[in-house]
Amino acid sequence: MTVATTLSGALTPTDDCEWIIEEAGYDPLREGSRGSRFAISNGFLGVRGARAIHRGGRWVGASRTLVAGLFDTADEEHAIPGLIAAPNWLQVRILRDGVPLTHREGDGKSQHRILDLRRGLLLTDARLSNADVVWVRLRSLHLASLSHRAIGLQLIQMEFERGEAEITLNASLEVSDTSLLPERVEQGLGVWNTTSSGKRLAMATTLTLRIDGVDIDPTSSSPLQWSWRWTSHPGQVVCLARTVAVTCGVAGEVHPGQDAVGALDVARKLGWSDVVAAHETAWTKRWHCSDVEIEGDAAAQRALRFALYHLNGAANPDDEHVSIAARALTGDDYRGHVFWDTEIYLLPFFTLTWPLAARALLMYRFHTLDGARAKAAELGWRGALYAWESADTGAETCPLHVIGPDRKLVEVKCGRQEQHISADIAYAVWQYWQATGDDGFMRDAGAEILMETARFWSSRARPEPDGHCHVRSVIGPDEYHESIDDNSFTNVMARCNIRRALDVVEWLRARWPEQWGSLAARLALSDAELGQWRTVAETIMTGFDPKTGLFEQFAGFFSLDDVDLSRYAGRSVPIDVVLGPEQTRQCQIVKQADVVALLALLPDEFPGDTGAKNFGYYAPRCAHGSSLSLAMHGVVAARLGETEAALDYFRRTSAIDLEDNHAAIDGGVHIAALGGIWSMVVFGFAGLALHADHLTLNPRIPAAWQSLRFGLQWRGRYLKIKIEHATASLEVTLDVGEPMTLVVNGKVFALSREQPLWVLTNFSSR
Question: What gap in Å lies between CA 426 and CA 409, rounded to an integer?
């Protein structure tokens, strides 16, 4: 088998359209969005999906590589840290007589970008020419290895179809971010320092060029640039293989490039074909654990696979000092900062399909606990108030001002007032522990997070003469309304935070008394303080009216003006731009799921028909001004049996990153919305709920879905679940683990490895 044939095989995409995202042509207006959509990532390296060939300054979609944790702050007063770009290691130019080969005029459809979801890599296929003298078919592949996260690989095959000419191929590794200062540059190795954060980045690379199966030495080279020149002829096949190893560390390391050189040596010994094979094997394992199969709805299947691809590529279980940003490693929006998105929208997926990744993400919050303590103390409270926007240290990185749609400076209050983040993290800690039974994590890290966040809420919620504890001047998930009192989402999540912390206190006392004694002493936790926590939990104002069954979103919400949002259907801008911020604040208009988010996360707080009442009240008042909103509504609608409405939320969420209706994803994919797509299926349509000693399922899948299949991990077990519409049946197989209890539509069943559980169920919806 020749090298060309082997490379041709690697460059051939998966032969199944359900695993392929493909786009033809080139549109400068959409290039930014496509760069996000076609991005590749392994949780450490993220590379935007630009086209394969670089043409210098005219290039619109130049590739951009981001490295998890590589933050730096510009040298200016009150600057905000952000992810910085690593050197561009994919840069290639092909020239004839010094002029770049370009895509043929009027032949835009010959350009194809193919995201192979199953294999976790990006392929391109295009034809280049120069004044009709030389025609070249160019095919490329690049990946960020899921099996060796330091490794990136680029493969390019050029088949000359017409003409003879002097060809020059330039490959380089170039720094574009001024925050990187060179420390050491030598042949195939660069080491850079960040200007202010004390980080070091090392990149080692090796390249080979083959012409008709023969290795060709570079005509010229410098430390990070290589050039080849030769005469082309029809039928000639040229293959470029480039491997790069990237490492990131801190200042003061003796040999900052040593790890990069070592990782590159490993990859070089493997050869590019084995690097590809190991990467594909790692992706096969991830798909085995996380794939969701839908029969009867090709669009839904494609959307799910796209979401799962980006979710699996966003996490790195080997590094507990980084987390997943709002746009993961696919773009620069929000400067790579971490929000509540990670714990509320992403952790459920990782907890149930990749517990090691979930644990690492929660450990990031443990390692940034001191930053949360510092923020609480700065604002005059005890315990830990996590940063609304977090980078590498846990310090608050939310900007104080941004430029609004009218180009005026707008104050940003979220960093000080959007405090539900601490309760959100506590919620994720508890959910992870319930789902995994990871007592070591709870004992050594999770308990301290719960204690310090509970302590914050107990100091934040102040008792008043009406007998209630109040939390004043906050922002809930609905960011249209600022400086409000007693946001129901915030307060009920805070109460849950305190109660779960008290539960863990009793667990530690009974199970790990020595560790509890040590933790209590270190945190100066007394029985008197724990008693005060209980009082706060019992008396905190929730906004629930037992007469109507409604939660008032915040004090005074029901007295605001009511607006019929259907009058503004079809608008192309957020409702607060249409009405103006001030008028929006005076209306019962909700930016994103708020009480509905509470209903999705804590359904037991809505007994009887109160869930349906609250959804019926708040859903029509939600303007969905955030990409996070639709998925929460979809989960709740599906649970309530409003299956077709839930499917509509599912499709609208899927369109955010998969359709080109607007240029909203230039800054990266909306990773929380992608996590929400999975949640709508698993927690919504399948009706999954987690409990300490069992799982429940109440499935209601859409009429168009013939079947739904997915797997999940729970307390050391691996389950496969199949829901079939035609037979109105549920089948659950326990592949790994001890027997367990499963509750389906309120009936209790025993599940063991000896025999799958098969249950007739009811898919009735309204």
Answer: 34
